[in-house]
Amino acid sequence: MNVLLWVLAGVLAVAFLAAGMMKLSQSKQKLAASGMGWVEDVSAGTVKAIGVLEVLAAVGLILPAALGVAPVLVPLAALGLALAMAGAAVVHARRSEAQMIAVNVVLLAPAVVEAWGRFGPYSF
């Protein structure tokens, strides 16, 4: 189970690091043109803040446990990502973007498993 949780953390970290870096490096217009229509509903600062939080969560999924420094940050990062994906699903539901809700659920599930495992029976 420990190996599965590390794999989940790695996959989540890669996915959210990429998503966060994209939000940080591209303008709202580029993001909207690439299919992220929700950015039109929020300020540029909000998009950048979401990007920063995604990058920090990606780092928080791996580094604390790998370095043995404050490993409680791993399940907290996973919980934060799960909450972010739940919020994103609500935003996409309001915008009638069913396909994007499916993406949110696909990312939500491993984040919940990671949080459960690292808070519970497989903590560091």
Describe this entry's structure for a reader:
The structure is a single chain. Helix 1 packs across helix 5 (98-119) and helix 4 (73-94) runs antiparallel to helix 5. Helices cover 79% and strands 0% of the residues. It has five helices and no strands. The longest helix is centred in the N-terminal third of the chain and has 24 residues, at 2-25. With 124 residues, it is mainly alpha-helical.
- Give the percentage of residues in beta strands: under 5%
Rg (C-alpha, Å): 15 Å
Give the low-confidence spans: none
Distance between the termini: 12 Å
Judged by helices, strands and strand pairing, the structural class is mainly alpha
Bin the helical content. over 70%
User: Would you tell me the overall average pLDDT?
Assistant: 96
Gross geometry: globular
* Total number of strands: 0
> What is the tally of helical segments?
5
What's this entry about, in short?
The protein is mainly α and 124 residues long. It has helices at residues 2-25, 28-33, 44-67, 73-94, 98-119. Helix 1 (2-25) runs antiparallel to helix 3.
